[in-house]
Batch of 2 targets.
Target 1
Amino acid sequence: MSCVNLSTWVQTCSLFNQAGGRSRLSSSSALNNLFHPLKNNFPVPLSSIPKRHRPSPSSSLSTVSAVLTQQETETVTEVLEEEKAPFNFKAYMIQKANSVNQALDDAVSLREPQTIHEAMRYSLLAGGKRVRPVLCLTACELVGGDESVAMPAALAVEMIHTMSLIHDDLPCMDNDDLRRGKPTNHKVFGEDVAVLAGDALLAFAFEHIAVSTAGVTPSRIVRAIGELAKSIGTEGLVAGQVVDIDSEGSDDAGLEKLEFIHIHKTAALLEASVVLGAILGGGTDDEVEKLRSFARCIGLLFQVVDDILDVTKSSQELGKTAGKDLVADKVTYPKLIGIEKSKEFAAKLNKEAQEQLSGFDPHKAAPLIALANYIANRQN
């Protein structure tokens, strides 16, 4: 596969949203409409004007304004300005994360038994970047679906991710006291309630997809549920977690075993996030598999960067306990190949991930490209 570096053109991508109560045009439609004799009320058909005298897309707005209304001129100006603006990844993530947070708050309400719901909400609404649900929503929109059809699945993925964090922090696992800058769930509610809170989130995740997904065929919903279940069982998250535990203090854990751990423990759920969005959005089998490959790369990338940050950042910078992998004598990329080689591997994974998106609409793919770059360069 030829290498296609798409990161350079991400800066030219822009979001086309509603603004000021008036819909904006894409650059192509703006230029087409600009020189269409019927749509813009030219006094004579363009075909009757000699070619050398016809306006062209490169004509200045001052020349074109002679045949455009003031409102039309302003609209075209806005479109051209948007074309120059880079894709605003931060604004995109904030907007998507806000939608996810509101939906999570509505889905997991505070009700009886109050203690368990408080524990569920404590970890679920503790913040975080919402990378997994955003991946799900963006993949859905990339293949032509609407955000609303993928929202239940996006929430389900975040519920399962939160469950894994609650259980991962338990004394019998990583025995961590800090998560997202706050005391871990078992430190606040006790180990017994923390275990049950994770169990409850896991169960409700599947219920929420099955009950709340609308506008999607039953076969696609069942397919999505199957993908999600596989990603967290003995072929996914659980497999990675078990091998990770078995590898602590091991002298024979090499790169092959480390990659197995990361692909299953971290990448599997990121992969499921993207694949669920593509399935529910109506993607073709080919589109789903391309996005699966993309997600697998960024999933492994996420963990490689996590390994690097664990040994290069402080607990305050990370919002969780730093250096815990080193203390637990876990196998990590920096431990096996060093920090610099780990960074080189991360860059390679980012490039391979972006190559999988080369066949999609550049504007719709821009968030995923930016997200891959964000994962590669994140600092916490």
Target 2
Amino acid sequence: MDRDTPCIPLGHIQTYFDLRKSLKLEADWLRRKSNLSVDDPHEILEVIIGIDQQAFYRNAGIDYQPNEENRFISTQQVVALVDQAVKALKMPYLGLAMGNLMTISHHGMAGVAAVTQTTLRECLEVISRFCDELFPALSMTPRIEGNDGIFAMAEEICLAPYSHFFFELNMVSFYNIMWHLIDEEHHDFRVDFHYPEPAWGNIYRRYFDCPVHFNQPETRIVGPASLAEAELPLANRLMAMSAEKTLFENIPTRAMRFLPLRLRRMLLRYYGAFPSLENAASQMGMSGRTLRRKLAEEGTSYQKELDRVRQRLSREYFARGGQSITELSLMLGFTDSSAFAKAFRRWTGLSPSEFMERNPTTDRTTDRLA
């Protein structure tokens, strides 16, 4: 799966851009809600809701007709839509503003299914699953690390030059959701971004009522681990199940039908004990020969997908303050630390030691390899 693979439901992407569904048509409300500071907010509002829909999609290479949401578009086309919006509004930080405008209702049935889960952990797991299906260019992973509960986001398909837009939009949107689901007395969050602070970095502080850090090992929302099992105020299992059923009945999904992505997701579950190609194929309902052939048809291989997963897991290990290269090597299935260090340099251009020096975490002790 690459930037040109049609795998993203158009109906889902319209929740990003059809702000008419959630915007109140008052400039003062827009100014307060989005934190925009402009001379004529009416003009900004007119641009947002007045853009010619046909031209908007046509310029991105999408032959769109009204009521034709049940089709798929590529990551490249989504990026082209973002490019038009950012340039039309002259707002490089548009992701922050749009994310802040998106309410639970704006996420539709996906939002309802998420917030009606019993606990915050279940809510974030549902969001992660929806992201896999509805926007596979990003992955979202909830996890517990010691006293920290972490909701991390990573780029699976290149979103350049607008990677920051998608991280800004989703980080603000899900930060706001968590903020409203959790009692105010437990609002002890911070947000990290893996990229350097952009020229509009000061604007980030308007949208996050918590510490904001850049140049971090990964993009994530961090809060107390104890919140994972906090019962949500809107918990309703029947409603959650109904919302999820309605969502997938009305929005087609295709992402998990792509074999490399299915394999990658499966391998991520086997951190520390990766299956052989034959065993992986068996779990996916095919022979090893068939899996090898189908992956080759997609321009990849079992080893390439395994290395991609290993690279991601090694970055996450260091981001969490991993203690030992030897330990990580064994967990990733390498025969020794030297083999891991050689592979890591091939993936990143850096040795594990160099990588950790550039991405320091506190209280880390390691047996370093050059």
